[in-house]
Amino acid sequence: TAVPDPVFGEVAHAFVALRLGDRTAAREGRLSLNPLVHIDPFMTILLPAACYFLSQGSFIFGGARPVPVNPYNFRNPRKGNAICAAAGPAVNMLIAVVFLLLFCIQPIAPEGSFNFDIFLSVAAGNWVLAAFNLVPIPPLDGSKIAAGLLPWKAARAFSLPPAAGFAALIIFLWFGWDVVRPYAMAPLNAALFLAVMARSYFFGGPGLPL
């Protein structure tokens, strides 16, 4: 199964921040597709390893080092920070759509073939990554988007201290994600159904068994 690459999302944050007037990430070399510059010792190495061993290989969670953004360099700090945060999930959704389109235009291949597996797994993986990052819990992108769109008093609820936000995120992972995930995946499942129908129409054959 292909693992979605959070590097594209981090580069999107850095690029949009630069376009909006903040050069912090660009000065630190984060406007790069080189995965090495996005490694975080805890999020990229220690946390995934701990999850893997504690769950006996059934669960892995981790991420890249967050791109530094100074919203006070934006003309409108709250709005700019929200737009910058939304760039990451937007790029992951775009990748998911591109790979669904690649799945549509390839000739019918047996289930389990390389093209069959890679296109679908990249699409699904990036969609899940985007949907998860849109959850409004710090430090996920959804919290910054919510903080930029809601009135000041409501937005303060999304400014938790890092330790509190991380604790809330772990609780959500264990108890809330399985509840939210079917709704988050519904648009992808609908798109996948249409992709299968389109591929079967243009190339013939049974396509993906649903």
**Can you write the helix and strand succession as a string?**
HHHHHHHHH
Major sheet = none
Averaged pLDDT, please?
Answer: 82
Question: What percent of residues adopt helix (DSSP H or I)?
Answer: 55-70%
Shape: globular
Task: List how many beta strands DSSP finds.
Answer: 0
| Rg, nearest Å | 19 Å
The tally of helices reads 9
SS strand fraction:
under 5%
In words, what does this structure look like?
By secondary structure, the protein is an all-alpha fold. The chain is built from nine helices and no strands. The chain has helices at 7-19, 24-27, 41-54, 77-105, 114-133, 141-149, 152-155, 162-175, 177-203. α5 packs antiparallel against α9. It is globular. 32% of the residues are buried.
Describe the structure using short key phrases.
210 residues, 0% strand, disordered C terminus, mainly alpha
Brief summary of the model shown:
The chain has 210 residues and is mainly alpha-helical. It contains 9 helices and no strands. It starts with 6 loop residues before the first helix and ends in a 7-residue tail after the last helix.
